[in-house]
Amino acid sequence: MTTYLGIIIAILAIVISTIMDGNSFGALVGPSSLFLVVVGSMGVSLSGFQISDLKPAPKAIIISFTGKEPDPGEAIDRLMKFAEIARKEGVLALEEQLEDLDDPFMKLGLQQIVDGVDGDMVREVLEIEMAALDERHNPSINFVKAMGSYAPTMGMVGTVVGLINMLGNMSDPAQLGLGMSVALLTTLYGVIFANLVFLPIASKLQRLHDLEVAHKELLLDGILAVQGGASPRMVVERLEAYINPDMRVGHQERSKRVSGKAA
Amino acid sequence: MTTYLGIIIAILAIVISTIMDGNSFGALVGPSSLFLVVVGSMGVSLSGFQISDLKPAPKAIIISFTGKEPDPGEAIDRLMKFAEIARKEGVLALEEQLEDLDDPFMKLGLQQIVDGVDGDMVREVLEIEMAALDERHNPSINFVKAMGSYAPTMGMVGTVVGLINMLGNMSDPAQLGLGMSVALLTTLYGVIFANLVFLPIASKLQRLHDLEVAHKELLLDGILAVQGGASPRMVVERLEAYINPDMRVGHQERSKRVSGKAA
Amino acid sequence: MTTYLGIIIAILAIVISTIMDGNSFGALVGPSSLFLVVVGSMGVSLSGFQISDLKPAPKAIIISFTGKEPDPGEAIDRLMKFAEIARKEGVLALEEQLEDLDDPFMKLGLQQIVDGVDGDMVREVLEIEMAALDERHNPSINFVKAMGSYAPTMGMVGTVVGLINMLGNMSDPAQLGLGMSVALLTTLYGVIFANLVFLPIASKLQRLHDLEVAHKELLLDGILAVQGGASPRMVVERLEAYINPDMRVGHQERSKRVSGKAA
Amino acid sequence: MTTYLGIIIAILAIVISTIMDGNSFGALVGPSSLFLVVVGSMGVSLSGFQISDLKPAPKAIIISFTGKEPDPGEAIDRLMKFAEIARKEGVLALEEQLEDLDDPFMKLGLQQIVDGVDGDMVREVLEIEMAALDERHNPSINFVKAMGSYAPTMGMVGTVVGLINMLGNMSDPAQLGLGMSVALLTTLYGVIFANLVFLPIASKLQRLHDLEVAHKELLLDGILAVQGGASPRMVVERLEAYINPDMRVGHQERSKRVSGKAA
Amino acid sequence: MTTYLGIIIAILAIVISTIMDGNSFGALVGPSSLFLVVVGSMGVSLSGFQISDLKPAPKAIIISFTGKEPDPGEAIDRLMKFAEIARKEGVLALEEQLEDLDDPFMKLGLQQIVDGVDGDMVREVLEIEMAALDERHNPSINFVKAMGSYAPTMGMVGTVVGLINMLGNMSDPAQLGLGMSVALLTTLYGVIFANLVFLPIASKLQRLHDLEVAHKELLLDGILAVQGGASPRMVVERLEAYINPDMRVGHQERSKRVSGKAA
User: Fold this and answer.
1) ipTM entry
2) Is A178 in CB contact (< 8 Å) with chain C?
């Protein structure tokens, strides 16, 4: 949501300030500049990656606009419940909880607990999973970052090409200003696409990735606590340290909330 | 305090040097430039974060002007007193000290000692707390840093838009200078807002965060020493290594000071 | 493949946008600029390396265009098969598998298992091998990166030399524009060679190196699992954590596939 | 010493090359530029720190001109002597050596040995001391670095303010050159103050800090060796590995030197 | 060798492209620019270091032109021979090999084995030695890097001084071009000295340092293997993992070669 909002605010800021200065938008229209900046930076960025790296990139860009951050509160509720079950009925009783789980990471961890895998091994497998997450997300993030860093360069290329032509053919000095005006347009498009499109998307993707990693760390810690036989109260106390103090409600409150929902 | 002071000194330096050069301020007034730089960089920065990340940002900016650094001397006094109580009356006697504590971090640590939690576990929970502090502060700091890095870019966008219009419509060459003058204004605002507003606030927030982390490390070390049964003297010696030599007064002096206060 | 494609797309973007603006290509031809940028940046880059570092550089550049990423799926199949053999017939039975192996890294690891080398020692030797891979690849990657960072500088040198001559000999002010146009050409070549040739090749080489390192980590993990007597099912589960969820097919599917191929 | 010398050489280089080019110094005098660059960058830098951080800054700047590097040779002599005493007469006999010691770090370590503190604890306390050294020195170093990075920006602000005024009031085009000349002056002052004053001071402070840290590492290693009962010969061999081969004289030579001094 | 070669190629590229463009070299001669850039950047760089840091710098610069990389093949041969002797005749028999050794690092390690020093201690002393190598080489490398980063700045200072004088005294507008031409010369010298002299030398020194560190790691590993009683075959297998696959010849081949030489 902030991605839409932020980009729209920034574009409005440019539009409104242009109007305030009494400048026209006609001079700012440049299809060739647009083409050079967008297609050129895409091409250059493309050449540094493998095709297989880039398959998830379009989906990633959509996610940067629509992606929701994970909800640690709900995860803590669930892990508290699992700790209760594990204590009362043993870890094998967790098996029937597996079906309701959407989160494949939590599912994988729980499955291993049920299978009686050793705690160190559970940690190891889940950490490999987290490293693989990095490995999967990084190419998309880096591709958008690359576009953001190549766009101003492509803009400068367009401007220099324009200047070289203008300066080399100064038959009509009156056209000097117009030529420079057109040449500068590519610079403008390069800067705008980098800073209003590519870099914000890359920042958002990075932020969503960081939130997901932090969430998985909470899950990993909770899963190991459940396996270790921690009490529901201890699980809540430990995991609430990960979240904002405003969102910490304590074991009692969470129990009530969960049993309320279940009722 | 230094934040106000520093920014006022820097602005005065610009104002005074402008007067010294006999330049006028009229040419430096540009509402459209102000609007583009402030709103534009806010928009672009916004799009790289989640709404929930940014809720604490306004409060953080106020803190950068008013925030006080933590007082390690007082914390050492307190931990010395706790060590004394723990040695004389046992760790359970620390429970009644919990009520007077404002610092939630020290409270959490002490509560765990009273609850008889194992030393390694106390360290672990407090370290998760410290990692969560990073997680909470970083988005605000990074948001202000982002505004500081986008402001000059938005300034440049405004200048290039101005130049394109001016060069494209050179009906009156006499206006060339005036046009460039107005176009350059956005560059000026971008540079000034980045370097006199956003980046100093970000530096101050980072510095306050670093001081808080260092303070929490001192607290963690002291809490574990108290739990481990260290003598008040040992606690003071160990913790004074964290602070400036000028501020080290030794166990005897601190004891006197604390009992003086208590009397 | 993407290297060709990406560079061609970027060049087309420049060509098409130049045509769209009605600019000519004649003004963009500059053999002296080409010479200065390519030979100059090669020379400067060369001086920071040893001759022996640079022997693999030409091969590396070709690989950046043709290199294929390693196939983790096939490696998992193989390691699953080895785990089966090791369990059924003992590790010595792996010896006859050694002949079919192309991958020298897997071969080295397997040979050591067959020789009865201790697990920690196997890990150590394979990790030295991986460090040596870094040591071998880095000079080539850094050489191409150096060319990418020196090319714009050489372009700027050419432009400044041109400007100094033009400004120093302004006998005919009418030539001013033409002189600047020619001077700017070297800047253009520097930017284009850096961003459309050297940097994309360096990125691709870095990416291929990173993929190879990640692949070797999977192999190392699998080899140690085989030596440790893990079941084929456990090997598959553990190693599939390294790969994209879309590509995870599970032990049963892989067994079928492998025996299908063998039949 | 090098700080004076280096800055004087660099200023002379500018002065002499200006004379060689037949340029006058009159055009380079600009009190307003000087004021803006120095006071402005001080203000901006100030706003990112706490007052308490900056108390040691003036002293630090003086140290950057006068500070001497620690003498590892003398420290090795002393530690060799301590090792001898500890072996012959026991660690308690080290107590009377404490009085002659100027170095508070060595004193602290030795005091702990005499007090019979455990080796791991000695290391821990001394490492906290070293971390606190970082904590104390970094704000001063970073403050001077900040001034070095803000000075060119303040210079650019002054130049843009000058250009805006000049371009906005081009009543007399003949004044154009003079106006630009004055405007550029602030850029010059910004670059000169950053590169000839602030950054060299920051580098020197960093270098002195690094040397002090390296020296304390040698001391820490030596103190622990003395406590561990190493022979004087072993202490010398171990500690001389830290210093330049030219300065390694061996145990025998050092013994002679020390007893010669004592005689 | 590559240092000479690379710098000569780059200078030739500039010379040839200048000729190709029909530009003259007369306009490129500027003793004052040369003086400012070389002496000025030396002065500024000097002020950030201690005199004692810089004593090895001139020697280091010469080494960057003449320095040879260490020969790992020969070191492996030697260590293989030592392993043989240690196995057959015991580690004390290594003493007579010490005399022939030129490499002080290998000598130090071997001496300690002969002295019966514990393996962990041998590793520790050799690692201190490697850290001290860093400590010794870094100031020289950083000094040359500093010159490379200050040279363009000094060039810019010279150009701005020139521009200020030219613009402030535009009595004869016809001289405008010539003045700018001369002013730009310092920029050119700054860029050329940084990129064709200082930075390549710094890169080469860094590369030679890295190669030396990698070589010492191989030696350290080999020395510990010899002490641990590894067979010559195992020593060769382990150490050949450090080197390029093309250069791996195996134990048998090496034995033959070594005994061939001895014969």
Assistant:
1) 0.84
2) no
